[in-house]
């Protein structure tokens, strides 16, 4: 039995999965690391903690492989998009990894949108203007931390740093580069205007390579710790969103992947780059003739966690004492409330929002509260609000790529039958839940096998996953959701004029008091 390893460097952990070459999972490791939020809007991670977690993950799954009767064919990488690390001349970090969730560049992202430069850059890079991007972060660092900015010799992401530690080679795949806001998707090269706006030069960035490129010659010390032949090929791989589409077999035109984990996304694959004239969706590279168009949201499962911790603390404690899952208990409570939560609407913008409004100042709200509403209504409204928001992303996506033919859904939410049915009802589409629990790692592994010639076509991934179940929309919910979704959308637009004001108040008053 031969093996392929998929490594998924995520926002909170590295997931490392050992697959056989038939795409079946043979080993799994999930290694966590902290997210540092020392000041308002910060969201950073320690790159060396991530590197150690990656080494531990590889070491763990290598023990699961029967190397007497097979070999490791390769290792392929996925990574979260938009991270930024400043390195000195010796490739040592000057900063932590500034993640996609960091909003400190909001002022400069707003300026780019307002002065028209942002629209010009979006039309060339396919990356919406937002503080998540390295483009915005670089402008912020250059203006607000000029001494630190001047010390930097290199500007890289977490995948580039990890691979440099392993191989001593600094290079970046097209997919990760595509998400920086610095990469021209039509020229497949760093964009001169974006570099000028960011205030950097191309020789401060890694060498660009395709997602199917490979590296060999791992540092012997690390290879020894992991227990791997140092000549094992490592495939560059892509970013996590495009690979999640591949991992759930959503790579044919019209097949939409909906992911709800901590955050969420709606994505579809096209055979060439496509741009939204309104700038609401991204366009990211996967591999030759495969581009992923879609929209990410900040607020997925993290909202459900907030509801549990802040509104249902007693139930959470009870669930722990009974040895049952607290989220399962909450969905049981929510299921007792009718579709539409008796007219209670929740905007789930607890951490700003990306698609489709791209507003880091967005804030959450309940609308329509009356004395007849209970906490049960509030938890159901929160779950519905997350799906309403994803549906608005789908509406924007339809304008660019057309109506979906089917939906493949994955992520932590897929464990909840209520949430799966809610997705089918609000989207009014059949929703298929693939069996593979780690779609992104499977996508990385599949791309790696393709790069190594072990498979001839990416569509082989359909043989690697099964269908756990299909949820059909329930017509009895149509009246409620068809009435409420337009109200949700109109409210989002009307509230947007006040998001900046309330966010500024919180930064200057609430956070200032917290510091004291």
UniProtKB/TrEMBL annotation:
The keyword Transferase is assigned to this record: yes
The family this protein is said to belong to: Belongs to the FGGY kinase family.
Protein name in UniProt: Gluconokinase
Molecular function via GO: gluconokinase activity
Keyword Transferase: yes
A Pfam family hit: FGGY_C
Key words, A-Z: Kinase, Transferase
NCBIfam families: gntK_FGGY (TIGR01314)
Gene3D superfamilies per record: 3.30.420.40
Organism placement in taxonomy: Bacteria, Bacillati, Bacillota, Bacilli, Lactobacillales
Domain (Carbohydrate kinase FGGY C-terminal) ranges: 257-452
A biological process from GO: D-gluconate metabolic process
Ranges of residues in domain Carbohydrate kinase FGGY N-terminal: 3-247
Enzyme class: transferase
Gene: gntK
EC number: 2.7.1.12
């Amino acid at each position: 039995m031969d093996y392929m390893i998929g490594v998924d460097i995520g926002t909170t952990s590295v997931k490392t999965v050992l697959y056989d070459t038939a795409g079946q999972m043979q080993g799994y490791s999930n290694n966590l690391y902290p997210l540092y939020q020392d000041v308002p809007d910060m969201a950073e991670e320690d790159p060396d903690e991530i590197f150690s977690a990656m080494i531990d993950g590889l070491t763990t799954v290598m023990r699961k492989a029967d190397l007497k009767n097979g070999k490791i064919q390769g290792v392929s990488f996925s990574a979260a998009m938009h991270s930024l690390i400043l390195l000195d001349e010796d490739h040592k970090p000057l900063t932590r990894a500034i993640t996609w969730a960091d909003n400190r560049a909001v002022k400069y992202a707003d300026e780019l949108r307002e002065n028209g430069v942002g629209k010009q850059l979006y039309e060339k890079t396919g990356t919406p203007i937002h503080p998540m991007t390295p483009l915005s972060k670089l402008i912020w660092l250059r203006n607000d931390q000029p001494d630190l900015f001047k010390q930097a010799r290199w500007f890289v992401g977490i995948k580039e740093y990890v691979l440099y530690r392993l191989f001593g080679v600094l290079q970046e795949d097209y997919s990760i580069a595509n998400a920086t806001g610095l990469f021209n998707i039509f020229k497949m090269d760093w964009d001169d205007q974006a570099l000028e706006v960011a205030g950097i030069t191309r020789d401060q960035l890694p060498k660009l390579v395709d997602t199917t490129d490979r590296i060999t010659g791992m540092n012997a010390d690390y290879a020894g710790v992991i227990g791997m032949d140092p000549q094992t090929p490592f495939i560059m791989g892509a970013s996590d969103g495009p690979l999640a589409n591949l991992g759930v077999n959503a790579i044919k035109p019209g097949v939409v992947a909906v992911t709800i984990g901590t955050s969420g996304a709606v994505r579809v694959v096209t055979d060439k780059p496509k741009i939204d004239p309104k700038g609401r969706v991204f366009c990211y590279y996967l591999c030759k003739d495969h581009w992923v168009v879609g929209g990410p949201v900040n607020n997925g499962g993290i909202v459900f966690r907030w509801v549990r911790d802040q509104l249902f603390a007693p139930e959470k404690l009870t669930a722990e004492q009974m040895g049952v899952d607290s989220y399962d208990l909450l969905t049981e409570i929510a299921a007792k409330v009718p579709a539409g939560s008796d007219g209670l609407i929740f905007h789930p913008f607890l951490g700003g929002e990306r698609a489709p409004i791209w507003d880091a100042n967005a804030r959450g709200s309940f609308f329509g509260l009356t004395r007849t509403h209970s906490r049960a209504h509030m938890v159901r409204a929160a779950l519905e609000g997350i799906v309403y928001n994803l549906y608005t992303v789908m509406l924007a996506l339809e304008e660019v790529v057309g109506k979906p033919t089917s939906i493949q859904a994955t992520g932590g939410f897929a464990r909840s039958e209520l949430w799966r049915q809610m997705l089918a009802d609000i989207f009014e589409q059949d929703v298929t839940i693939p069996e593979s629990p780690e779609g992104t790692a499977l996508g990385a592994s599949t791309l790696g096998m393709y790069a190594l010639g072990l498979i001839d076509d990416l569509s082989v991934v359909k043989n690697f996953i099964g269908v756990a179940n299909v949820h059909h929309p329930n017509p009895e919910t149509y009246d409620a959701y068809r009435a409420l979704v337009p109200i949700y959308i109109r409210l989002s637009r009307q509230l947007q004029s006040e998001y900046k004001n309330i966010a500024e108040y919180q930064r200057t008053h609430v956070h200032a008091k917290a510091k004291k």
